C-alpha cells in the first residue's frame, strides 16, 4: 500500500485529497494517480450515500495555520513548533444525576420513516473478507453457512468498519497498523490493530472482538441492574458479544481524540429464547474548542440519525453527555457525539440498520478534521494542556467506562485490548487551574456546561 509522508508533501497530498473528494461528491472518476485515488483509497471506500462534509459546514481541507483558534493578542510561553515538526512532535457511569435512573434504554420509534438505506454488499463472504485487516474471528466457512443470521451480519459490519478506518488512518499517517490476532480460551477472540509513535498519531487502536461462553454472576448482575431480567439454566447464561471499538490519540493538540464503539449482545435463556440488543456511539474529545470542527462532527452524526428518526440525535446526544461524565471532576470527557445502549426495538432489522448507518460515519466525521489541522503549530504549553486532558481521559476509562468494567469482569478477557484506549503518555498536575480568559478555560467551561453544536 502506498503511503504519504506529510512532513514533505503534506500540501500536495491534501490538495489531491480535496480534488478526489470533490470529484467523488459529484459522481466523477479520479485519475487514480495517488494513494488517495477514488479507485483504491480507503478514504473513498465509503458508501456512495455518505458525504464527507455536512451541509452548511465550513469545514474543508484548509491550508494550515490557526483556523478556528484565537489569533492576535494571544500570548504563549515557549517556542512554537510548526510545519513538519508539528506533525512529528511528540457500562456504568456515576455521572448520572442522583435523581435520574442510573441507566436508560434506547427506545426506537415504533414507526421508522422509509429510508434509502443501501443494501449490504452482495457476493460470497470470502470475497468480502479479502478487504479486511485480517480474516474474521469466526471461521469463514461457518460465516458462509449462517450468513443470514444477525451474528454473521454484525461480525461482517464490524470487520468492515475496522478495515475502512485503519486504512484511512494509514493514508494520513504514512505508518502501518500492527495486526494482532488473539484467542480467548473460553470462546472466541479478537483482532487488535494498533499503530504507535506514528507521524500523526501517537497511538491509534481499532479493536474487533467476538466472544462467547457464559456470563459470570457479576456480569449478569450488571445486566439486571439495567432492567434486564435474565433466567439461566443451572445458573448459566450462554452469551455472544461482539463489537468494534477505537480510540485515536493524535500527537498534535489541535487534532482531537476520537472514540467509537458499536456492539451486539445476544443471550440464550433457560427456555431457549434469546434476548439481544445493540449499543454504541461516537464521541469527540478535543483539547481546544473549534466550533467548525464541532459542527462538522455533530452534524455528520445527526444526518445519520435523521435517516431513521428525527429524535434520535437529540436523545442520543444528551445520553452521550451524561454517559461520558467524570463525576469526581464535574466535567464531561469531551464535547460528546451520540451514545445509546440496550437498543432492542422496534425490530432487529431496523435496529441493525440504524447501527449500520452510525458505523458508516466514523471516517467522514473525523478524517476531514484531521486533515484540517495536520500542520497547525503548537507550543509546549499547549502540549502540556493536551497531556492534562489525556489524564482526564484515563480517569474516565478506568473509573466509569462500562465497557472496560465488563471486559475486566469477563473471564479470559484480553487486558491489552481492553486497555488499548489509554494514551501512551498523560499528565497530572496538582491543583491545576487554567487562567481566566484563556483557551484552556474556554475548553473547561464547555466540558462543565455541555453545548448544542448543531
From TrEMBL:
Keyword Membrane attributed: yes
Key words, A-Z: Heme biosynthesis, Membrane, Oxidoreductase, Porphyrin biosynthesis, Transmembrane, Transmembrane helix
Enzyme Commission code(s) on record: 1.3.3.3
Reactions accelerated catalytically: coproporphyrinogen III + O2 + 2 H(+) = protoporphyrinogen IX + 2 CO2 + 2 H2O
Pathway the protein acts in: Porphyrin-containing compound metabolism; protoporphyrin-IX biosynthesis; protoporphyrinogen-IX from coproporphyrinogen-III (O2 route): step 1/1
Source species, domain of life: Eukaryota
Chain segments annotated as transmembrane: 79-98
Gene Ontology CC terms: cytoplasm
GO BP term, pick one: protoporphyrinogen IX biosynthetic process
Molecular function GO terms recorded: coproporphyrinogen oxidase activity
Oxidoreductase is among the record's keywords: yes
Quaternary assembly: Homodimer.
Record family assignment: Belongs to the aerobic coproporphyrinogen-III oxidase family.
Protein name: Oxygen-dependent coproporphyrinogen-III oxidase, mitochondrial
